[in-house]
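ok here's the first one, seq then struct tokens
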Amino acid sequence: MACHICCWRTFAPGVYTRLFAILDHIHAFGSRFFTALHYSDYRKLWVGTALSQSGNWALIVSRAALALNLTGSSGSAGVVTFAAMIPAVVISPLAGYLADRFDRKIVLAGAYSTNIIANLILAGLVISGRVEFWQLVFLSLISGIGRASQMPAAQALLPNLIPSNILVNGVALHHATQQGGKMLGPLCILPAILMGHSSLAFLISSVLYIGGLAIVLRIRTTSRGVVKSDQGVAKNLVQGLSFVYSNGMLLSIFLIAVLHCALTMSYETLFPALSRDRLGLTDAIGLYKGGSLLMIGIGSGSFISSFLIAGIRSAKIRGNLFFVFGILSGVAPFALGLAPSLSIAIIAAFGVGLSQAGFMTLTQSMVQQIVPDEIRGRVMAVYSWHIQGFMASFNILNGFLTDTPWLNATRVLSGMSAIFTAIMFLSIGRTPLRRIYRHGLSQTEHLASPL
């Protein structure tokens, strides 16, 4: 007995030392990657965004498959996606103004409510078997209005919930939830699809949005921008646009991001056709299943890259990765388009998500670093306006190109990606972008003054 006690006294200090060392590593890991989550209101926005984005991507996957199933045309899937995205061109500027004029939490809650109403109506029509294509397009338009209002409000609210010195961490973690929704949303609806109840996907999407709204309403921080009372609505709206186009660094980031989204991320229309024509999933359940599994692959890669960027503190490394992710965003879709089987396609989709989300997370982080809070809502609305407008146009273009006899989803996906790869190499010639690629965003570009 005495021997055992003696051994324990000798062994115990080493055990405790190792245990505390492990705990220190865990604490350091959390401090590096999860810093922004230490703040209560940020956590609420983070969870609310995770739920709403999951609902949104569950809806996107289901909606495209439903359109193709109703009409048999990839062009119709493009029309539905276009209807869901095009409101950003009209609504985003007004939503950005509202996000600077009123409490951003209230604007965000209103956007969530709009989506919930549209999704519940669509779920009822699909479950009852009475849905028609024109109804799908109209409700996609209403849902798009909600989404166009949601994005500027959430992006403008975020920097007010955390200290400015951890802004990049907060933006990256928030973007991780946006991208993770591509994985979680389809995962939530996959059991219903596999059991032959694909109509329930629309109801699940609504429930996820309701959960997001309940969390967002608990945010206590009051946040609004600065709107000049002596100027009209139109003049205040133009202020955000003027700021973007007068700032050379910001404009360069906007342009490369718009081209990236248009040429490499307008794939929602293509997934049902790729599942049917390339992967052999020809029946109604197969269309839902193929799109869902590909989106899960993209979402998984997206979440990982956004999460890893949250822990990178070096501006130079972030700048280097911005270029690397840009190149990979153009290369990865080739593998996806040429995948001979569903399992390989899912792996390729993981690579697509990893590269594209990394690029967009860094883009949003730099935009947020440059923009002052007084006009943040309006500038983020301009950002959303450009991104969503071009993605809407290219989704409908890709859908109709896929329907032509000499093209298919594989050729469209590969062709668009090749164009962007060439653009990334050419962008080295633009001084602001070349400086970012080499050195990252310098402190002198942070928080430029509004006009």
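and now the second one, same deal
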Amino acid sequence: MTLDIAALQTDLQAKGIDVLRLIFPDVLGITRSKDLLVSQLHRAKSPLFCQGVWVTTTGGGVLDGNDIMSSGLPDLLTQIDPDTLTMMPWEPGVALVIGDAFNPDHSVSEVAPRSVLQKVIAEYAALGLTPTVGPELEFYIANYDEENGWSRSLSRTGRVYTTGEHVDPGGQFLNLMRMLDGMDIGVFAGNHEFSPAQYEINLWHSEALDAADRTFLFKTAVRDIVARTGKHALFVGKPWDDEGGSGFHLHFSVVDKDGNNIMSDGGSGLSEMANHMIGGILAHAGSLAALSNPTVNAYKRLGPDTLAPYRANWGHDNRSAMLRVPPERGAGTRLEVRLGDPAANPYLLIASTLAAGLDGIKRKLTAPTAVEGWAYEDESADILPMTLTAALDALDADTVMRDTMGSTVIDVFSVLKRDEVMRYEDAVSDKATRDVSQWEIDEYFADY
């Protein structure tokens, strides 16, 4: 795609934009960025970064995944995707735009999460299919000060599915919703969730790349908007020992070349296509766990009777299963994969889910019998990985994920995450504890 810098510059200046904030996700899902002066945009056609960003840990170390260190930390080129441009209503004069990442020779980066997702989507396109995704994320709003550390901004329980002053003192959440609406990224509803100071915001479904872009913009914006109030948005799976975790649920369907949803059998049941996709997702549940639950902390959210997944099973309108099939049929027929943690990189979570579903389609895998009742008691289904190490072992051994997503990004992800596990285990006395450690608080809260 050739970018007309002069036309972009003119358009931005006409809208009163004098700073363009270029953002892209690193492998961890953290937003990396550079502010570009619109008046000088012709001098920043391909803004440069260092490839060390791909292998920088949350703790600040730089590792040697994909030989990036040993090759001398080469350049990373970025290219603005003007279709992702959106305003920042809380920061007048500034707009956000997502950039694609390239190697110094202008080849597509095999590490860049957005490029990885584009690669998987192309596999669907080759079959005449388009994956559609609807993201659904939960997060906490927290207080922090040096003396008292981290705490929830509210303490009253029992206020699930509520809005208004009693769960939003000062209108912070209401302001957040208005700012997100001004971005035009598909936010359409939100509410206080089950635990005190926990919130959920829903984004409308769309084609997979667009949905991933909007999720990335959403997480970036929420953290920025909430930070301006002196509080913190935590996209962390299990920040508190005494309250429930937060999830990142993914609603997933496919349409044919004519735009028709092909997940239903035309009546009240599911199509063979949907059945194969369920079979694929469950077959790759172990490796999916690594990319959708990418922190040590995430596995303290998963478990029996947690309202988070525990077994690789599925059910009709069953929120205790890993994969729920909502009751809508026709154009609304879809799968809800409930495995994800909000710390997950949206591009890698969506790419891996699509890759698993694609394997089911290609190999015509058959879904097991749907679970009924409390899915935690379904002993016919395998227990999901209960540690990040176990999930990484499953991912490293998954040849389908490597073939579909590319080995390079999986290897870099594994290097980063195994270093994370090592640092965690060095810091805690009980490696098997389900309690949230000070190491997790220090490692994750400020960045996720």
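notes on #2: The domain at 5-108 is CATH 3.10.20.70 (Ubiquitin-like (UB roll)). The radius of gyration is 21 Å.
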